[in-house]
């Protein structure tokens, strides 16, 4: 056992026989978009090197296809030719400066390939892809197995310590293993022994190609969470065969991409799926990796010390903080920049073919472009506003050696984050504020709370630079009767905790409108109650049905009657995050929230809110009307400074008052801090 007092199980080495891992942390696979960018492999090398330097035990790269048809997109990355090896050597040589091991993930997308040459077990189209795959011939199947083995050999030549064969999340191997997609009647379909044949023969071929001293991780879908998924007995049968075929480690896969159960968003309880890995530990002896929504060393240590798994996979937490392991080892977990599971800069970007990054760490995947070297000249800087933009700027500027003072009229740091953290499912926002508070303390930043600054005060204090992160004010609406006592702003509801009646109309269905609706309908947060959360989303821990779905979700009587209204005629919630918007819509639908688009607001009166939809007027008889209809930049202080001829920098909502956008605000703050 490792003698590290803080996290002895997490930091203990893992003996794999022919090699060992420095600790039990796996940086899980994430596609970053750098794989396809010009010069992207140099940037990828810097990205992975930073995590290796930070102490992670094992890294798995983003998914790389073994052949053309398996690519995720037309220009997606593949490792199939000898001339591909050179660029991968940049990554492995950078990582191997440290004791970290690195595996290449081999991923054939199957029917998830976003191009017209996609193939699968059968001609069954995915609901999340416009392209229908062709059913693979036996010759194509055998060719694909050879391609996996060839790619593994090339990965070995490139210096990788092993490969992860992607057999979960609804990609090709998972498509073969489940009757949902596999409708074949030959030796590759029918019984589980036939359906898993592609996985098992692929592992055998990779082992034969790369030899015994090569890590093979198999990512096994232990919980498909789709109709037509495997039974628990099928999963166990496959796991035993995977072990026998020569896998070194089995990684836990949870859910297909098309599953209608959230698996990694911030509303998912921490470590919500470790129970399935624990159950599998009774069936196989190969070391098991558990995964999904594990974002602190304390959670990881508990999983390992209780014997639920042998290793813990964390992907996005290593985007958020490359020094996660080093900080844990130094017993400084309170200094970790915690992943909040928001998906906004990572998965949402990747699904839009943009480079991934991180909302709380905009330097992620920009290690060679967004850097914070020590400043040549130390400046005295005033930052007005302690929301996400002001806090991020202050921390980065102080890290560069500047003297920073923060002023905020509130009694605590956080700005709009203080509203967000109260929303059920957004409790992780507390972690970001804890991180900033700790950094303010460590960096010696002077914090002035409950202080409203004037232009005269700032001008007289002799600052070299003034940065205004004064945020936003809610936009005033021009509706007849808008001053009625029934009308409240979202700030009155979330900040001032003013009572709200049993029937409510919310004007504005952007992110804030959805947040307020969830705040009003969810009497308790299921994020802190894993058992109830699983029941609520129809996940059956007893695994009575195939795929692990119970077939029924909990439908509780709504605590309030809520109307969520928008002027636009587009689908309500269309502007929400690409990978999380459906979760918010589903949550509100379960709670009986009525969503109306194309609404004209006619009048507020004693009866409620008078609206027109498609030219028909109706009165929503509600107790309260809550305004969530956009924001305007708070620039009064900027205008005062400008009038005095004093130049100030505007960042965050004070600069652009779009939907509250912490991702843009923090990136803008970081970019200014890097050059000021």
TrEMBL record:
Write down the top EC class of this protein: oxidoreductase
In which domain of life is the source organism classified? Bacteria
Which EC numbers does the record give? 1.3.1.34
Q: So which cofactors does this thing need?
A: FMN; [4Fe-4S] cluster
**GO MF assignments:** 2,4-dienoyl-CoA reductase (NADPH) activity; FMN binding; iron-sulfur cluster binding; metal ion binding
Which residue ranges does the record assign to the FAD/NAD(P)-binding domain?
380-648
Alphabetical UniProt keywords: Flavoprotein, FMN, Iron, Iron-sulfur, Metal-binding, Oxidoreductase
| SUPFAM superfamilies per UniProt | FAD/NAD(P)-binding domain, FMN-linked oxidoreductases, Nucleotide-binding domain
Q: Which residues form the NADH:flavin oxidoreductase/NADH oxidase N-terminal domain?
A: 10-334
Q: Which GO terms describe its biological process?
A: fatty acid beta-oxidation, unsaturated, even number, reductase/isomerase pathway
Q: Which family does it belong to?
A: In the N-terminal section; belongs to the NADH:flavin oxidoreductase/NADH oxidase family.
Protein name per the record:
NADPH-dependent 2,4-dienoyl-CoA reductase
Q: What is the lineage of its organism?
A: Bacteria, Pseudomonadati, Pseudomonadota, Gammaproteobacteria, Alteromonadales
Q: Which gene encodes it?
A: fadH
């Amino acid at each position: 056992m490792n003698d590290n007092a803080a996290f002895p199980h997490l930091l203990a080495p893992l003996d794999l026989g022919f090699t060992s891992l420095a600790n039990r942390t796996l940086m899980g696979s994430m596609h970053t978009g750098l794989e396809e960018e010009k010069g992207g492999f140099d940037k990828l090398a810097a990205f992975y090197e930073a995590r290796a330097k930070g102490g992670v035990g094992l890294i798995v790269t983003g998914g790389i296809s073994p052949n053309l048809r398996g690519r995720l997109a037309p220009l997606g990355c593949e490792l199939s030719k000898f001339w591909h090896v050179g660029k991968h050597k940049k990554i492995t040589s950078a990582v191997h400066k440290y004791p970290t091991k690195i595996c290449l993930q081999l991923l054939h997308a199957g029917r998830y390939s976003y191009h017209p040459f996609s193939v699968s077990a059968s001609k069954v189209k995915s609901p999340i892809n416009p392209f229908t795959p062709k059913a693979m011939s036996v010759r194509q199947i055998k060719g694909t197995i050879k391609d996996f083995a060839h790619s593994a050999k090339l990965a070995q030549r490139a210096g990788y310590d092993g490969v992860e064969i992607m057999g979960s999340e609804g990609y090709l191997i998972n498509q073969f293993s489940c009757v949902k997609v596999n409708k074949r009647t030959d030796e590759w379909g029918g019984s589980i022994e036939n359906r898993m044949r592609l996985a098992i023969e692929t592992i055998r071929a990779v082992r034969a190609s790369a030899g015994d001293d090569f890590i093979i991780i198999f990512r096994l879908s232990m919980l498909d969470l789709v109709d037509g998924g495997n039974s628990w007995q099928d999963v166990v049968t496959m796991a035993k065969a995977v072990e026998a075929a020569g896998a070194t480690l089995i990684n836990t896969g949870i859910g297909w991409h098309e599953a209608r159960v959230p698996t990694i968003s911030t509303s998912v309880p921490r470590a919500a799926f470790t129970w399935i890995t624990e159950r599998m530990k009774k069936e196989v002896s190969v070391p098991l990796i558990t995964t999904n929504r594990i974002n602190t060393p304390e959670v990881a240590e508990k999983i390992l010390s209780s014997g639920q798994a042998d290793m813990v996979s964390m992907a996005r937490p290593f985007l958020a903080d490359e020094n996660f392991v080093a900080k844990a080892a130094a017993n400084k977990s309170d200094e970790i920049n915690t992943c909040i599971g928001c998906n906004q800069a990572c998965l949402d970007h990747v699904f839009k073919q943009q480079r991934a990054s991180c909302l709380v760490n905009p330097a992620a995947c920009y290690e060679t472009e967004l850097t914070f070297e020590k400043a040549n000249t130390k400046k005295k800087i005033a930052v007005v506003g302690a929301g996400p933009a002001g806090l991020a700027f202050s921390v980065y500027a102080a890290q560069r050696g500047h003297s920073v003072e923060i002023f905020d009229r509130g009694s605590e740091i956080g700005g709009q984050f203080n509203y967000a953290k109260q929303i059920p499912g957004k409790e992780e926002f507390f972690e970001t504020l804890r991180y900033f508070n700790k950094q303010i303390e460590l960096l010696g930043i002077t914090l002035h709370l409950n202080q409203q600054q004037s232009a005269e005060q700032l001008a007289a204090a002799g600052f070299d630079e003034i940065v205004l992160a004064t945020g936003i004010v809610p936009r005033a609406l021009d509706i007849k009767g808008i001053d009625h006592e029934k009308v409240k702003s979202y700030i009155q509801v979330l900040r001032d905790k003013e009572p709200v009646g049993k029937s409510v109309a919310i004007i504005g269905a952007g992110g804030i409108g959805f947040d307020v609706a969830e705040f009003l309908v969810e009497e308790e947060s299921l994020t802190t109650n894993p058992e109830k959360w699983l029941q609520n989303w129809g996940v059956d821990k007893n695994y009575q049905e195939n795929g692990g779905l119970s077939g029924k979700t909990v439908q509780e009587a709504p605590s309030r009657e809520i109307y969520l209204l928008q002027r636009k005629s587009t689908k309500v919630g269309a502007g929400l995050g690409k990978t999380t918007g459906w979760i918010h819509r589903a949550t509100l639908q379960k709670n009986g929230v009525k969503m109306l688009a194309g609404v004209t607001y006619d009048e507020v009166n004693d009866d409620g809110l008078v609206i027109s939809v498609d030219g028909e007027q109706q009165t929503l008889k509600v107790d309260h009307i809550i305004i969530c209809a956009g924001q305007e930049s708070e620039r009064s202080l900027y205008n005062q400074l400008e009038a005095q001829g004093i130049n100030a920098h505007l960042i965050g909502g004070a600069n652009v008052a779009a939907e509250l956008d912490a991702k843009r605000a923090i990136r803008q703050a970081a970019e200014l801090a890097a050059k000021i």
